[in-house]
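Exercise: predict the fold of this chain.
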Amino acid sequence: MSREQILLDFVPEALDLVQDSENVILDIEKILEDGGDYDEFAINNLFRFFHTIKGSSGLLKLETIVKVTHEAETLLDILRKETILPRPEACQILLSVCDRLKKLFQEIETLKSDPIMEEESLFLIEQVKQEIRFLNSEPVSVVFKKKAAFEVFEDTVEPEPIEANNTLPVEFVADKVNVIEKEISIPSDKSLSQVKKEIKVSNEKLDLLMDIMGELVIAESNVTQHSAIKQIKNDSFGQSLNRLRKIVLDLQEVVLSTRMIPISPVFQRMSRLVRDLQKKTSKKISLHIEGDETQIDKSVVDLIADPIIHIIRNSVDHGIESTEERRLSGKSESGNIYLSARQSVNEVWILIRDDGRGLDRDRIVSKAKENGLFSGDPNSLTDKEVFLMIFAPGLSTAKEITSISGRGVGMDIVRQNIEKLSGKIEIQSKKGQGTTFILRIPLTLGIMEGTIIRIGNSFFTIQTIELKEFVNLRDKTAIPLEAGKTVYDVRGKFIPIFNINQILNHREHLKYDEKDPLMVIIEYDQKLLGIKVDAVIGNQNVVIKPLQGKMEEARDVSGFTILGSGNVSLILDVKSIFQKLQGQY
């Protein structure tokens, strides 16, 4: 394996260790805030994380990483030997070390080599050294003169001599690296036998496995649903088919599970975000996390962080009141943000709730009118419809722009990112009590629960969560409007109806059966419209296949799937359809 490939494999593991370090530092800060005592486990863990990063980086000749972590490790070694917690200033310095390491490892991933020692790294090293000098000047630490517990490569910074009574056993690795091993306490309930063995698999291999699994699902359906097979009346053969179907479904579940990872890494990042934001805003805020063990598709996890970040930034900046304002309103001085996740059928629900001032309906409507987004009677709008206006580009109810938010851009980004994931957003808010954002995200992007409809001899699939209801048109009378538009009265709501030819601009019009006409009502952004169909085939999990060639540019269609009958079914892009038809109803 080449050195470049080894570096690329090392970076994700190193970044995980940096994130673990950051989480421990935040825990230590919380101990300091609560006036707690020295936490041996936390300090030893933190030392171990930096020790591991430094050792592995030394083996790979990443000298800049070694020099940065060397001083941080020295600082932590003092703390654990003297059994003292770092002061708040030291916690901030260690967090800055984590931030710097993240940037350095990102550079390594790009350059595939050791990054140069820049001024920022040198400045940070000096800050750590100052903290070390401070600790050494304190009475509790005067007796401790050890400067380093680790040495790598002859051309690195030479550590100061270690006192004889502190000498540690030395192990020579490949005659090149001198590693000084020191025993670190590990909780008794976590023996090596309890640690799960894991192997890393590339995303490309997982994607290929998913594609093959999709083909197998389609092939199984083609066989079991084939008309010739259905004519065979044999109990033993039928049992074999059922067993085949069960094995394929079990295999599909296992393959899907290989792509599932806990959402905890994303949630853990928010602890640091809230910590930094409350310092910027001088507010007291507590973050409460629940359900971070909930699992979601690996590709979804990478895309969900930004929307959560933008929502939390707005909650901190505009939702949570100042300490004085909360006191006057009878609330606790410390604001609360609750971040939770739970699985619901084929979706993951992520909830971000704060106990702040809530959304101001009147102010949102006023801003929407100023921006030309709304001109009618605001009393005709529900709270949900008004709250969704905050996702409009450029709309912000903030009284002033801050370094955190207020330009009306962040929430628009939230909406775009959630739509890329084929997800939905809901908002609940009460003035003076707080706001809840509910992000409904598909478990996986490769397979979705779809509803199959038939029009003539053609089949189409609509994501089930985008369907409102089915309406039989046999006993309903169409209400004609100008310009050939038509609506139906469905329990007092007038639903515009379109046929598939209007939606997809077919060159050759699809012919409807007209025997027993149906309308499927689809929903997007609190708006409804109907599509005329001949039949609803049913719901099933479908494998999403991307359009290729000239079809890639097709609008109103997001992909296709192959049904058990062997027929191709186009997957309708509901968002695109609404955007296209919004001027026609």
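Check your answer against the key: The first strand starts at residue 170 and ends at 173.
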